[in-house]
Amino acid sequence: MKRQGTKADMLKRLQQKVQQIDLGGGAFWKPQVGRSTIRIIPAVGTMEFFFKEVGQHYIGNTYYYCPTVCNDGDSKRFPCPICEVNEALYAAGEKEAAAQFRVGRRFYMNIIERPAPPAKDADRVQIFAAPQSVMQVIISLVGDPDYGDISDPGIGFDLKIDRTGEGKESKYATLPGAKPCALSTSEELLEALLSSAKDLNTYVGEKIMSYDDLAIKSGVSVYIDGYEDKVEDEEEVELEEEDEDDEVELEEEDEEAEVKPSQVLTSRLNARLAVRKPVRK
Ligand SMILES: [Zn+2]
Known about the structure:
The chain is an alpha+beta fold. The chain is built from eleven helices and eight strands. It starts with 6 loop residues before the first helix and ends in a 5-residue tail after the last helix. Bound molecules: zinc ion. The site of zinc ion has 8 residues, from strand 3 and helix 2.
């Protein structure tokens, strides 16, 4: 469909569009290539530690928070449909398909980035979604009596992160500062930093979807029993099913009484993901 309008209208629409794009993580701090020096802010609010372990499923360009991993791995109270599908596909021998639904682990922490001299203090708290490689170094520092709680605002340590490579090739080397130092040079600024740090339990908790929402929005519901009716209510799925050939639909009817043939389900799942990908913002 062709859009009517002047260039000014088009620009306006473009600007509105780009403002709506959610890059998922745009608010997060990321180490640039080269060296960055950061300081971790101690636990605030309901946080027990200075970090919050988070599980993410990356499907069709979108991150979904894993309810199980985000709740300390408690799959009984916080089941995750995507993890369940991941396990079911592995059990069915569909290793490649299963890999798409794997959970990735990140460790969220409030940090400040130390500005380059001559500026002395950072005043902006950001969230760093630390990868496991960085967290491993942090864990070993905390366990080492020479360092201990590196987030201590008085006698903790800065961290130097050297990043090489871009995207999936990114590698991080993490080192502690040479000696302990204060988080901030003034009481006043320290208070300001602590009060602007986010309670990461709340922050993540608010983003976790219910089991049903997660199953349907991520698309894995097609692989789970009992979602036929719910899924068929969705317009997107009806569009997708029109594309499917009769043979698959016949097999689908047979599924009611029998064990689900995993290959048919896997192809339906892949078809659904393929349909969803371009729609994702
Ligand atoms: Zn999960």
